[in-house]
């Protein structure tokens, strides 16, 4: 196989970035959604600059896809970075009220600033932002309590702008802000592709599936592959694994095997498998 370029189009990225900045201008607080399986790769380094001084609520969605013990580890790590993570399962509506409460929590500060400028207090305005497919629409629908935004298992499907009232003191933009992919770092890009947080048009399934196998071995989940597909990944590269599995059980159909592996992971059929762990502090 050739080198693993995950494609992106500078024009699209510039447009997405413009739209996102437009949305950010209108709000008081930002709800940033990360993928709990890859909280670091799904966080864009420029978000802090784009948001500037506005308060942010950090949401780690898909908490059902990671072990409970890891949730505690991430909480400790994010707190050490001065951030409080809120864990949600937006599909099943878990952890939603805590996120709404955290967003409403900035009201006193916003009212004070408005009063200083002779303005009347008003409800807090919020927007949900995040990489494609991390669960932004599902979170919005849960916060609103009904279906306002289409939530699909495909990256890049939401647009349009309206305010929806969440409570007396909280209004939400019903269209999430889509953060343009961060592809300067191919390791992160591969993780985003594995988790389907990048549109499928941007990558080659076989390259991504091979990288996924290598990554599973690296993060200590080789056994999952061995027991599920009766083929041990420890003695092979990801690329060889894909090839051997395809020839063993799928008539050499590499694409089919690549999709099978990726879909099994994405649907949670392999169990709760995280692809990242909190960095160890080196002091
Ligand atoms: N297992 C699980 N699935 C989730 C969760 N949140 C969302 N999903 C699913 O993930 C898929 C993507 O969710 P969306 O809400 O459409 O994601 P999005 O970020 O709005 O996607 P774009 O509009 O493409 O940017 C859907 O199939 C959801 O049902 C979650 O917490 N756990």
Automatic annotation (TrEMBL):
Q: Where does the UniProt annotation locate this protein?
A: Cytoplasm
Record domain G: where? 126-185
Which keywords, in A-to-Z order, does the entry hold? Cytoplasm, GTP-binding, Nucleotide-binding
Fetch the SUPFAM superfamilies from UniProt. Answer: P-loop containing nucleoside triphosphate hydrolases (SSF52540)
State whether keyword Disulfide bond applies.
no
> What GO cellular component is one of the record's annotations?
cytoplasm
Q: Which residues form a coiled coil?
A: none
What domain of life does the UniProt record list for this protein's source? Bacteria
Quote the Pfam families the UniProt record gives: MMR_HSR1 (PF01926)
Annotated GO molecular function terms are: GTP binding; GTPase activity
Tell me a GO biological process for this protein.
translation
The positions annotated for binding GTP are 61-64, 177
Q: What does the similarity note say?
A: Belongs to the TRAFAC class YlqF/YawG GTPase family. MTG1 subfamily.
Q: Which PANTHER family match?
A: DAR GTPASE 3, CHLOROPLASTIC, MITOCHONDRIAL RIBOSOME-ASSOCIATED GTPASE 1
Q: Which NCBIfam families does this UniProt record tie to the protein?
A: GTPase_YlqF
- Tell me, what does this protein do in biology? Required for a late step of 50S ribosomal subunit assembly. Has GTPase activity.
Protein's recorded name: Ribosome biogenesis GTPase A
Native species: Lusitaniella coriacea LEGE 07157
Q: Which gene encodes it?
A: ylqF
């Amino acid at each position: 196989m050739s080198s693993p370029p995950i494609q992106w189009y500078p024009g699209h990225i510039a447009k997405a970035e413009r739209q996102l900045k437009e949305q950010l201008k209108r709000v008081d607080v930002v709800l940033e959604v990360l993928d709990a399986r890859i909280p670091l790769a799904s966080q864009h380094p420029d978000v802090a600059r784009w948001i500037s001084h506005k308060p942010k609520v950090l949401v780690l969605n898909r908490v059902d896809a990671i072990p409970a013990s890891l949730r505690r580890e991430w909480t400790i790590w994010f707190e050490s970075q001065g951030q409080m993570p809120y864990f949600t399962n937006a599909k099943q509506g878990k952890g939603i009220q805590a996120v709404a409460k955290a967003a409403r929590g900035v009201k006193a500060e916003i009212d004070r600033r408005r009063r200083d400028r002779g303005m009347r207090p008003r409800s807090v305005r919020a927007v949900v932002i995040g990489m494609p497919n991390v669960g932004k629409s599902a979170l919005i629908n849960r916060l609103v309590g009904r279906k306002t935004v289409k939530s699909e298992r495909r990256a890049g499907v939401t647009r349009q702008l309206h305010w929806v009232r969440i409570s007396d003191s909280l209004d939400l933009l019903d269209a999430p802000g889509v953060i343009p992919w961060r592809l300067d770092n191919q390791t992160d890009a591969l993780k985003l592709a594995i988790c389907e947080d990048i549109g499928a048009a941007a990558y080659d399934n076989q390259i991504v599936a091979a990288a996924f196998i290598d990554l599973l071995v690296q993060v200590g989940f080789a056994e999952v592959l061995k027991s599920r597909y009766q083929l041990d990944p420890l003695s092979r590269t990801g690329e060889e694994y894909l090839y051997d599995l395809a020839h063993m059980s799928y008539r050499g159909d590499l694409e089919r095997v690549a999709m099978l592996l990726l879909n099994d992971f994405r649907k949670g059929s392999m169990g709760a498998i995280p692809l990242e762990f909190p960095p160890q502090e080196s002091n």
